[in-house]
Amino acid sequence: MPRDPIHSHKLGIALLDGKRFEYDKTKEWESSNLLCVGGRGIPVKYWGEFYKRGKGVKNTAWDALRVEWGNWKFIAEERQHYPDTASFWRAFTATQDANDARTFFDGNLDHPLAQGAFRYTKGGKSYVSSKDDAVAKKWRELLATRLDISSRVLAAQSSSQ
Does the pLDDT at position 96 exceed 90? Predict the structure, then answer.
């Protein structure tokens, strides 16, 4: 039976012997059947203990997985700072979107191309948004309403792949 698709922010891919294994970084850390020993699924957080067992033996499987495992560990540890998985991914996505906006406008959210989209008024004074959640919200609005910006972003993404 095929697995449900995994959201791109949660998707991890490991290549073992040329085969592609996709996994959900948030779920497989604590409970996984991607690696089974004696018919029992081994959570990803324990993979290092299995792959590094052979003393003095060059283990190319662990060499191939070590960096991805470290990334996974980082995400799992960061997730523990939030009350639930949905809160974690909301914060992670907001941070990524805010960084994308800052990168697009070369660090200047008051760039003329933004046309004041990141500005707000408080107490009669105008300010530029700086909090990730506010910047991300405005960035997503810009992408949805400004074809000139969204087309540049798509062009940049396709040229980098």
Answer: no
